[in-house]
Design a protein that fits this description.
Elements: H1 23-55, H2 58-73, H3 84-112
Length: 118
């Protein structure tokens, strides 16, 4: 017995998990952008000061803060994070840790490599 096409939940060949014409997704992305904009206005200066205390460099702190906000803004599924402030701070700490590891490795590599003056 073949099902009645009118009784099917969606047209054949379409994916029911994707929103039609992308409109709900666009609204979700717009809402996410607004949340990030508000968070940026409220927390960017605090995050820079926090990172400056950790990195001892204002330039590094500003760069890390900007990169953390950019990372959150580019999220694929913004609805999966309910506490954006905590997520931004965690992203910034992770970025600072990664940069410190890279810098430490570079120093160790320079120390271990033989220097030839010839």
């Amino acid at each position: 017995m073949t099902p009645d096409p009118a009784a099917l939940p969606c047209e054949l060949g379409t994916d029911p998990s994707t929103p039609p014409e992308g409109k709900p997704q666009e609204r979700l992305n717009e809402a996410h952008s607004v949340r990030i904009e508000e968070l940026f206005r409220d927390e960017y200066t605090r995050l820079v000061h926090y990172m400056a205390a950790r990195t001892r460099s204002w330039a590094e702190a500003r760069d890390i803060a900007a990169q953390a906000f950019a990372q959150v803004l580019e999220m694929r599924d913004p609805g999966s994070v309910s506490f954006l402030k905590a997520y931004v701070y965690r992203a910034a700490r992770n970025l600072a840790t990664d940069r410190a590891k890279i810098a430490a490795f570079a120093v160790l590599t320079c120390i271990r490599s033989p220097i030839r003056n010839r």
